[in-house]
Amino acid sequence: MGILSRLPVKWMPPLIAALLTAFVVGAEARSSVPPRPTSLPSIAEGADARAVRSARAAQNRAIARLDTAAVASFWTEDVEIRRGLGVLVTGRDAYQKLFNPDSGAIARGDELIYQREPVSVEVSTKWPLAYEAGTWAGHFGRANGPVRISGRYAAQWVKRNGRWLIRGEVYVALSCAGAGCSATAAP
Fold it and tell me: What Rg, from alpha-carbon coordinates, does the chain have?
């Protein structure tokens, strides 16, 4: 038998009233608390943040076209990347080789076409620096092909001579499908 069945009948109306009051007061208290943001708000989504987003979109298009020279034009000479499975790559030339479809490592059409989607871009109010965070996916063969590996990334951008360039990127692989699951993370 439950606890309510053991209480005297005369206590039921006050108990029900107390429970309803607690429920209503609790609901009002919860509704007065603003919801937590699901992502960090952008400090400045002004012209510079839009320029970073535009540069990322242009780089995505260059990746999809397999235009490695255009892809590399968005990096500083000393760019550093921590790849999705943990391997470190330093320097524009080394990074560009990862995007070279003519390297002989893979057949044309079998490339992973990486696409990055910014979730937030924050631009410093003091320095020529910006922080980008978002999601990435490696699509098989084309930009809208099947996703083989994906995750989250962060990037540091620096503004030089009026142009935003990527100085560093960190990618973390979080999911995979098909052949993408056969890759091994760096120890």
Answer: 26
Amino acid in the structure at residue 89: V
How do the domains of the chain map onto residue ranges? 47-182
Q: Dump pLDDT digits (tens) for 3-23.
A: 555 555 555 555 455 544 544
Q: Which helix (H) or strand (E) holds 71?
A: helix 68-72
Q: pLDDT higher for 92 or 39?
A: 92
CA distances from 170 to 5, 43, 46, 173 (A): 61, 21, 24, 10
> Which residues 6+ apart lie within 8 Å of 69 measured at CB?
96
Tokens of 14: 């006050």
**Distance, CA of 122 to CA of 140 (rounded, Å):** 31
CA separation for the pair 153, 170 (Å, rounded): 5
Of 152, 139, 11, 154, the closest CA to residue 80 belongs to 154
Q: What is the pTM of this model?
A: 0.73
CATH classification (class only), 47-182: alpha beta
**pLDDT, tens only, 138-179:** 999 889 999 999 999 999 999 999 999 999 999 999 999 998
